[in-house]
Every structure is written in structure tokens, then in C-alpha cells.
Amino acid sequence: MYRFSQFKVISALMGIVLFQQTLFAEVDTQFITPDSSAAVVVYPQKVLTDKHLQMLPMEVLSAMSVQMLGIDPVHLDSVLLVAAPPAASGVPRVGVVASFNEPTSIDDLLPVLDEQGSTKKAPFSENGPSYRQAQSPYFPSFYQLDEKTILAANDEMLRDMLAQKQNPKSGPLANFVNNSLDKSDLQVFVAVEPIRDLASFMISPLTFPPGLAPVKTLPSQIDTISMKASITDSTYFEAKITTADEASAQEVQATLNQVLTFYQKMADAQFDENQYDSTQKALATYQSRLSSFVVETLKPKREGNVLTLSTKGKEQLTQQILIGYTMALVMPAVAQSSMAAQRISSTNNLRQLILTLHNYHDTYIRMPSQTMRDKDGKPLLSWRVHILPFLEQSDLYNQFHLDEPWDSEHNIKLIGLMPKTFRRPGSKAAPGMTNYQVPLAKGLPFQEHERLKFSNITDGLSNTIAILEVPDEKAVTWTKPDDFQIDLDNPLKGLVRKNQNGFTVVLFDGSARRIITETMTKEKFIKLLTHAGGEVVDF
Prior knowledge:
Layout: H1 5-16, E1 38-42, H2 44-48, H3 58-69, E2 76-84, E3 93-100, H4 112-116, E4 119-123, E5 130-134, E6 141-146, E7 149-153, H5 155-166, H6 172-180, E8 186-191, H7 196-203, H8 218-221, E9 222-231, E10 235-243, H9 246-269, H10 278-297, E11 301-303, E12 306-310, H11 315-364, E13 371-373, E14 379-382, H12 383-386, H13 394-399, E15 433-434, E16 436-437, E17 439-440, E18 465-469, E19 476-477, E20 484-485, E21 502-507, E22 512-516, H14 522-529
Parallel strand pairs: 17-20
Antiparallel strand pairs: 1-2, 1-8, 2-3, 3-7, 4-5, 6-7, 8-9, 9-10, 10-12, 11-12, 13-14, 15-19, 16-18, 18-21, 21-22
Helix pairs in contact: 9-10, 10-11
């Protein structure tokens, strides 16, 4: 795993400059080592000063870059990133060549390095200049080639790149780049040969969905991949794939079509009439429509042994795709913010309910029974009715006939008066139905014939779940003495809403917690549900 923190920042910068262009700077491809497998080229200055992008917050980008990196990206003519297969030790071999349009010193570059102690000044060779040497092979060293060129790479890759510059040797990637490099804003080149065996080894154990098994054969069939994108002089995206022969190209084309079809099916599968959130449903519909448009636009065309996926000559289509994917990124964030607001409100409801239980306990020195019963043992009303006076709902409480069941002719008329605190924000359950229930099972705090004291919760109030937030399909009439039945063999079953990864609970000490099902084990959850098991639980 790459741990180049500075490279991550530079990579993020490259992602930003994908959308940019004005002047064209030459890229010195002589730094591409013979065994390199991938290269990325961007032109920051050309892009960031383009008149079409003058309304982007360039001032903010420049200020942030100077603060974080010690450089202004407007002063970068070009950036070349080169990647080679990892060394035998597993150390990644990635290097960056930054060419500036004005003199730039390593001493001004990345000032945060000295603060972190991640680099030190050291001689590069016996008679060579000093450079900033990283303390770890997983971090980049920095070498000043001339007053306008700085290299960043771990020591092994740095020496290989400089040796290649001084004594160029032919390699498949360098030849490919030299024959394909143009003025596109962002360009990515991959020569498969140096990593063919590694790629095949890494992909072979992976399990693919039905119909996508041919993906495993791609490393053995593809020779080169290039991807280019621009939105300045002309807006387009283009990817080209070459194979050894026409037959291989036909097979790769069929595989890519299968991938695109699968992508479309995955997008369509997001649409579900039973989703609870109408915004999420609308977003899924939009993403399905967008994916259909993209799939149709990017179907690979074949000519001999070359496959092309391109929007060249379709500038309006490309702009629509860019706008579409921008919206597809932004809209989920908007939807997530709405869901987050609902989650916060639900958490507040749970905290209010547990506070109400505490006030009840302070008055009666015990908790309410989960089910109120008459002298013959017949169930009458829920614990939720018991606590109404402590929820500032005394007037509603006084309207109940406490000696009658919840569905008596009189009490059933009060169901529609359910306090908002009992309803989860965003719930689509019928009126009068609550999502807040206590867990029921043998050995859990709320037993039908028991009214526990807090002192009976010997596992600790901070280690025991009091109330659960349940999905709409598990909601119950709030006055009915009915709550969530826990299956001790599968205690998380039925507790997670569709398209969610967890649910919220409140503990007896008043703290609300989000239970993430992927990380919560059955054993741990049962410990949180029981109140006198003698377990210590670490959230």
C-alpha cells in the first residue's frame, strides 16, 4: 500500500487539473525507466490559466497548495508521474518530475517536511549535490535537477530515473508515450508487458459476477492502454486499447461490452419502488438514466487490433456526461445530509425517551413494566403509555382508560394522538405506529411481569441497551403492549432498514450509539442486550 502522503496530495492536485488548458509545455519522457509500466502527464499552468475556467476558485486552490505543498500550481508547467513494478522488498516505485515556469528551490518546497522530520539533507552520491532524503523508503525523497525541475521519488526509483535520464534505454512504456503524447489536459499511459504476470497473478483469485469471468483474461490479451481527457480547447474523453492481434481485440471488445452491460444492470438494480426515501429513489432513477447514456456513448469501436472508447467530436455529449457525473457526486451528498439530519433527530428522540424512563424510575424507584396487565393477567397498555406524564403529556395520559386494553372502543381512538417523540423522522409507517421499541427475550431487562430497578442492571447502565430504533416494517401501534422480539440465534435480524448499514440504540445511561452491522458480532450484541450477564463490553 502506498504511503506517500505527499504523493496523495499531488495525485489529488492531478485530479483537480483534469478539467483544465492554455499553454503547452514539453514533457521530458527520458525519465521513464525501461521497466516502468504506467505514466501520467498533466499541464497545471496551462489548465489553471485557461479562460474557460476563470470562474473556478483558483485563488483558493493556489493558497491551499502554497500552504500545504509550498508551491503554487500555476507555476507548474508540467507534471510527469512514472510508476514501475514494486521492488522485491515490496517498496512501491513511483516518481514525479515537476517542471516549473520559474526558479523553484527544494528549500521552499513542502516546508511541512522539516516539521515532521520526514526528510534530511544528505549527499546524493560521493561527489553529488545534497538532496532531501526520506527517512523511510515509503516516503519520497526530493532532488533538485535544475532551477526549474524537481524530482520526487523513493531513493531506489529516484536513482533509476536519473540514470535513465543520463543514459537513456529503450522501454515499452517510453516508446508508447513518445508515440502517443499530445496536448490533452490529462493523459494516462499503461504498458501491460512489464506487469502482465503480476496483473494476472493479482486478478486470478478474484471472484467476478456471472458473465464477467472473461475479465480475468484481460491482462494476457492487452498490450497497451491510453486514456486522455480535456475540457479546455475541446471537451472529450478517449481511451485506446491495443492487443497483439485482431482476434484478441474481438475478445476484449466482447468483454468490455459485458462489463458495460453489467454496469448498466447494477445502476438499474438501485431502483426499487419499496425504498423508503423518495429522494433516494429519485437519485437511483437518475443514476440509471445517466449510466444508460454513458454506456451507449462509450461502446468500444474496433479497428484491427485497436479498440477505442471516445467522445471526440461529441463535445456536447461529453459536457453532459461531465455535468451528469458531477451531479451524481453532489446529489448523494445532499441526500446523505438529509439522512444525517433525520438520524440526529432520531437520536434526540431516543435520548428524550431514556430521560423520561429515568424520571419515571426516580419517582417509582423502578422502571415501568413492558406490558400493563389487569388482575386476570390480560394485556392492557404499553410502557409507552406509562411514561406519558414524564413526557409532558399528562393531558393525553389522563384520557386513557387504564383498566381497558389498547384496542378497546375508547382507547383505540387515542392512537392517532401519538406524540412526535415516538415517531422516527422520515418514517413511512402508518400514523400511530412507532419505531422505538424495547428488546424482548429471555434474560433481557424488560420482562412482561417484572419492573426492574436500575440497581438490577449489574452489567452497568453504560453497557446495556434500553431502546431500539427499528425499521418501518417492524413498527407497532404505540399504545399496544408490543415490542421487538429478539432472535437470540440471530439477534441483529430485522433491525436494519433497507439501504442502511446499521441502526441507532440508546443505552440505560442515556448515551445513544450507532450499531454498524458489519462490525457488530452476534456475541457482542447479545452482551449489550443482557443486563446481568457479567460481561464487559467495549464499544
